[in-house]
User: Fold these one by one.
Assistant:
Number 1:
Amino acid sequence: LTPIDFSPEMMAEIKHVIGLFPEGKQKSALIRILHIVQTHFGWTSVPAMNKVAEILSIQPIEVYEVATFYTMFHLNPVGNYVFEVCRTGPCMIVGSDDIIAYIEEKLNIKVGGTTADGMFTLKTAECLGGCGYGPVMQCKYKFHEHLTKEKVDEIIEAYREASISK
Amino acid sequence: MTGRKLLLENVHIPGIETFDVYRKNGGYASVEKALKKMTPDEVVEEVKKSGLRGRGGAGFPTGMKWSFLAKPDGVPRHLVCNADESEPGTFKDRYLMEKLPHLLIEGMITSSYALGANLSFIYIRGEFMYILHILEKAIAEAYANGMLGKNIMGSGFDLDLVVAPGGGAYICGEETALLESLEGKRGNPRMKPPFPAVKGLWGCPTVVNNVESIAAVVPIVNEGGDAYAKIGIERSTGTKLISASGNLVRPGVYEIEMGVSVEEFIYGDDYCRGIANGKQLKACIPGGSSVPILPAHLVTKTAAGENRLMTYESLADGGFASGSMLGSGGFIVFDEDQCIVKNTYTFARFYAHESCGQCSPCREGTGWMEKVLHRLEHGHGTLEDISLLEEINKKIEGNTICPLGDAAAWPVAAAIRHFREEFEWHVTHATEAQTRNYGLIQPRVEEIKTL
Ligand SMILES: Cc1cc2nc3c(=O)[nH]c(=O)nc-3n(C[C@H](O)[C@H](O)[C@H](O)COP(=O)(O)O)c2cc1C
Ligand code: SF4
Ligand code: FES
């Protein structure tokens, strides 16, 4: 595993977050730092976690045990866009199963899979806190609500375009 | 008339998320009043008088919780706002924070003053990252306008306010798991005692309150605890945010006066406007996934035939036999087409997924229930599986460190209690259960109420 470097912008962001907590309580910044790491790299790799441990002056295991506990952190590489579709009761009764099946069909992947071009990963999630606006999914911290097949088409199209124009 | 709104009154004013507009519309008056004219104890006294009960689910009186806070000399105290909001069916805190970030900040300042906290936190679920940014923007405005930082409004009171995200874990809504998480650790609930009021964040006395509880402190201080207590019925005072979801014409977040009837809430023009697509009501979970489900005939009426009201007491009327709970106000409505077994299965899966794994009855029991419900739902179950579920339930109940175990057990027990034949149907009609949804073919017409 080759060590990883964080960009100056990332380091500035991380320093800011650490500064929000009192002296000696820098570990409280850990979860937010992992979000920063994942936003920059797309997933949370072991070298990145080691680097975080070094920055916080804590043991790498302290970072691993947190990253493995919280479900938002992807511990393996994922597509550029990860769809996390809620499937808990309130979303299920307004049709989340159909939405999941439709995305599987449309992207030709199963839940947990990534498209061949590495663009999309489909995952399921438990209640995302949008139950009244279901079916709901999240992608890159953005909520997509009141999902229909047409809406799913639009979302996929928009992300495809966004990645081309990048 | 939809009744008085104490929290969401100004929600539709354009720009209300900015400091200036919020302030012009009476915002931060409670800070001004508390810091300039009241002692911290007087603020606590008003909250006690208001009868406010914690809006996070357990309904514990907020004023009483505050008065338990230990105050050893020279030890900092903290107020932590619980914005983890992950109970299936609940999405009110998100709405409040997104639309009225300054209301929460104002509540945090006034409450921190009452508790003598100089460093307070808002712990928000990681999925709400965009709201963390909204809150941070509003906090920066509050600092710039002298509402946070040193010597707020010349009162000598200092307060720093920090927002911290979780990373996707329902259990971090449990207050001691939340504190662990805020310390940068796994969200494993702590053994109590010691309670957070004595040893909380970093071992310091800490109060953990829900977003809505903290926001409610604003009108309580502004109008006085007595005025607040006049709204509502019995020990259910003030207003409550309800997150309405499921098969409704108009789901969403509503602020209700405690005591509105359930019938009015489901069917009334000012609220949810009835069941969607002209369907009929089959069942309702009135307080989030952890509370017992009610079949249609017990939703709008109690077993004794009285009107069921949106209050702590009325929703609990009948106990576990025929009542439920107000809980976090996550009001989930099922139409006649829905399958209760399937819904119960998704909840069991949720709890198995979210169990932190510390106690074996919860870790093993939730996983076991998920498996059994999975096979029942998919037509591979047996009639013994139904009693097995009841047994597993009893083994979990009361045998765990935190209430997640109970929260997982109760909904299954209630679903079986009220919809046993639906569970049995999945066994006796196994082939059909594999291809069709129970609700779609077996509507419980006799119980369904037409309005
Ligand atoms: C498993 C579990 C999850 C919880 N989730 C939340 C939550 O998301 N938000 C919340 O305010 N309280 C939640 N609670 C309740 C908190 O432990 C705590 O009682 C509450 O935050 C206290 O605030 P209140 O008195 O203002 O309601 C949860 C409790 C348990 C056992
Ligand atoms: S009851 Fe479940 S969630 Fe709570 S501490 Fe025990 S294992 Fe963890
Ligand atoms: S159940 Fe899907 S967002 Fe709550």
Number 2:
Amino acid sequence: MIRLLLVLSLLPVSALARSTAPELLCAQYPDSPLCIGGQAACTTCHALSGPPSRNPFGQQIREQLSLGGVFEDEIEDALRAVELLDADGDGADNLAEILGGTQPGFDSAVEPECAEQAVFDNPWYSVGVYDPVFAFKRVTLDFCGRSPRYDEAKEFEALGPQGRTDALHAQLDACLQSPYWRSVLTEMGVGVVRPNGPATDINVLGNWAWDVRLFRYAMSGDRDAADLLRAQYLVVEEPPGTGRLAAIDEPRDVNEAYAQPLAREDRYGLVTTRYSLAMNVMFAPMPRTLVAHVYRELLGLDIAKSQGLFGVDELDGEYPWDSPRDVDSLGVWQEGCAACHATLDPMAYPWARYNGIDLDGDTTGTMIPDRAADILPEVDGTLFGEPIAGPAEWIEAAVASDAFPQRIVTLLWERVMRRAPYSCESDEFEALWRGFADDRNAERTLHRLIDADAYGVP
Amino acid sequence: MRWLPLLLLLAGCQLLPVPGAPTPTPYEPPVLDLGPPTAVKADLRLKRWRQVSLDLEGALELPGDSICNELGLFPCTTLNAAAIGGISIDNGLFRPIDDTIPVTAGPAIERMVLYACTERRALDEAGDPAVFTVSSGESLTAGEGEAQIATLYQRMLARDPLPEEVAATLGLHAGIVADGGDNHDWAWMVCFALGTTTEALLF
């Protein structure tokens, strides 16, 4: 037996995660709540710590795969073979858990929050059904930052059904103008921008306050949230100190011109601010960190967690795996690297002309038309596995993707609800992001959110 | 400082009796018939620091900068923001901690509520009372006590108190007076007690 194990350990079996696995699982079980974003999480098959360690479900699948076989050819049969097993031993078979949206590899039954809600005589709220009084309190706290006052609550309770609905949405409209919600949007912007350093226009590494203001601006009012990626305007506080924001086409003075040096036609929202380029491109000819940051924060796909992998084989089958060109000779063609870089590198090419830190020029965040031209004569690339001719196409493909509305609605949902959607809320969550995909307006999405059972059922 | 034992008692701590001290009237918690505890959603959230602060500002008619100052220098709200759902750019905390409640959240919230009630009391004792309307002596009529309780419930919890809640809250008065306190001390402690209930802090 020991000899057998030794022999097996010498066989060339890759212990790496399969970048195609989340997509293939969802192709087999498209209605599974685990596939809300089109791809299942790595932890469906892997340990919570991430690949390559497998959880019991992943291990059951692994045992169905042949040594040296082609994973993509065998995974369908492997999944079917373990459907009626109970990997985590929680009493529900793997198929039931996948279709129910719970993890087959962890002992987590359907969340208790999704079990049938018992109705009892609660003196304060209508437990188990949408309760406008409960929703009114939550709206006032979530968006105004305070509880309803006594008279305000009494007035609301005295209204009829339609009056309550109208008052609930009027309260949301009022609260969305409040200093509190402004502060929440600022905090959400901080979460996306991840500030570092002093917020001053004379900071050579960029003033992140511009980025946070753009986030607030695009996520409020009647605006198109796609401006997070598209905006060619700049956002200033006007008058200063009031918290009110205004868009300007060009910097108004020398400090603002220093803070945002790019020409208008070269700007793309949060991607190309001085802070973003200085902090995320820095000295690298290939702006991998820049696109990985945008991919994670604005499209919700974290390559470090094997999310959103759409590998492209740029070496035309030179290796058995999809491999990038390795334009900067870092060895990223190797299998262990290519699993991510076959997606990441082509995604970064279109941004190669944007400079991070220019030590010779003593500046940052500029556009240099021939930057990195020695390794990238053209800036064609791919996004989501599809060809992209340059930054403008990159941005439009991102805006048109499902990933963008899913990410923005996730940001709003998790900020308000302070948790991810439960499996029983997947329909409401999907309706929200599909609605957002239609109008791309954050405030209208919040109006739809407060009507959801997930929000208003105590 | 002499009220610390009672504050701790209200906060749920238990102290050993002091020999010779008058025995306070034992507090009998009201029994509310809410039916069997079978609801499973219980999707409650702890108010974040700004929500706690804004609620205290509104309920007690206080300016934001008087909610709490550590050492008279640092607002409790911002000093303890990370513990109560805030962010800290300087420390690289770019998103609030919602999965776990830090051990410091409870003390931070209690300090804010206690400080706010104390500030309101000082303002009311110095001028026209807005919240602590009860007379300053040790005797309390039922009507005066009930009016004070109603005011505090309406301000702190945005609702009227239940009869059993009125009875329980009035029941605290005798013990506080027996320990040397007066009506204002009682109302002040009721303010603190209501401001730190789960009803006030969760939504």
